[in-house]
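Morning - zinc ion inputs below, output right after.
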Amino acid sequence: MPPPFRSADSLYEARRSPVLSFLTPLRNFRTLEAIDNKMQAVSNKLAERLGDAPTVVSAEYQPRADGAKMRALAWFGTRDVRLIDAPVPDITEPDDVILKVTGTTICGSDLHLYHGEIVQLQQGDILGHEFMGVVDRVGPNVHNIKVGQRVVASFQIACGECSYCKQQLSSMCDRTNTSGLQNAMYGHRDAGFFGYSHFTGGFPGGQAEYVRVPKGNVNLLPIPDGVADEKALFLSDILPTSYHAVVDVGVKKGDVVGIWGLGPIGQCAARFALMKGASRVIGIDNVPARLAFAREKSGIETLDFSEHTDVVKRIQELVPGGLDIAIDCGTFHQPKSVLHKVEKALILETDVSEIVNEMIVATKKMGSCGIIAAYAGFTNHFNIGALMEKGIRLIGHGQAPVHKYWHELLAMIEAGDFDPLFVVSHRVALEEFPDLYASFDKRLGGVEKVFVSTKFSNPPSAGAPPLSRVADWGNEI
Ligand SMILES: NC(=O)c1ccc[n+]([C@@H]2O[C@H](COP(=O)([O-])OP(=O)(O)OC[C@H]3O[C@@H](n4cnc5c(N)ncnc54)[C@H](O)[C@@H]3O)[C@@H](O)[C@H]2O)c1
Ligand SMILES: [Zn+2]
Ligand SMILES: [Zn+2]
């Protein structure tokens, strides 16, 4: 059997593998891209037929009257993202805020878009759901945010008034996502998200010099002067996300916790699990730099799934009674087994159940497993028997409700109880985005979280990484 794929290119690799040699046309990269782009076209057509679900915000923005242009990163096809000159947004609805972006980043979730694995993407969509900035303009209904203020945006666009928003479950907002397709597939729909395809509303994102924030009263958090940009930015997603996973799955004192995936989400979840009193945390991945990072920076145990291909057996050796808690912080586009590679390549499944199955079998009877990693569609070979017979509590955490946690997390940062800088490995300029997508996808150069600066950014603050070029990171994984 070939070794497990390390890069997130595995869908492509799988389709090109000898196992699929009978499908010669699929072994051609351009054919693969054509198939993926066709899938986007079909999903967009279907969405058009289903019609838009009602919302209280519009995704389209009004360009500024002076015709000013900005640099932005846009999606054009599978593994094809480009910098474009786009119109600078202006106040379009009375609740809008326009931000000059001073910090943005790339997320493991952006890789799902890069791989064309989230539907309803359209050419020219501006990506980016994690960003902060300085307020440039405010609409007439915006009262709690002032021009010139430093703020961080939540990755989701909450209306602030529906039953979910009232409980601070902002990612579940009922009134900001137009996707009738998501409604049809899931029975309900998430909130609208910035820069995350028309499946989550089609809002232009923050991997840009300016961004329009709808419902600005609700979706921006002012940042105190004492908190550096490189710490504040991550309140937009990865800190609330990893914290939500740990809280929602119920990590408590003395628990032995397994964390699948040691990207930024897994690294932060490991820290939060320790803060909640976990007695042991075992991180599972196969990227040498990420395994070393987790051991050296957070002092957790690690399990390299390239070395221990039977992950469950290794966990049973390390923790004979089984894990108390398992958390999926991995990614659904890296199948390991030939079966899943073939099925995914032939689109007989869209997602892969391997991590969830490993978690269910490695966790003790009546233990809990949580899924914070993003999944999109359907999977085969799910071990429903083990789930039921062992009484495993399997929890889908959903997209994290940022508003529920960002005040608490900001307080932790201000008090010095949690320092997000530990996970920030690099800083690059906005113009580097296309290279950054490719290198982050392949986990090159010890990359974890990256601070992406714009022409409006402050210089790096004390302890934060200096500006670098992606081309200089090297090819080490
Ligand atoms: N629910 C939310 O609100 C939310 C928010 C942000 C990110 N996410 C999701 O969280 C996940 C992690 O995000 P990230 O930014 O850390 O991504 P990332 O892509 O940087 O990291 C994923 C890690 O998982 C590892 N991995 C792949 N297959 C594995 C396997 N079989 N077993 C163990 N590890 C495996 C990879 O090597 C990689 O290091 C992604 O799926 C992302 O979409 C969810
Ligand atoms: Zn994200
Ligand atoms: Zn709402």
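Note: Confidence is low (pLDDT under 50) at residues 1-27.

O.
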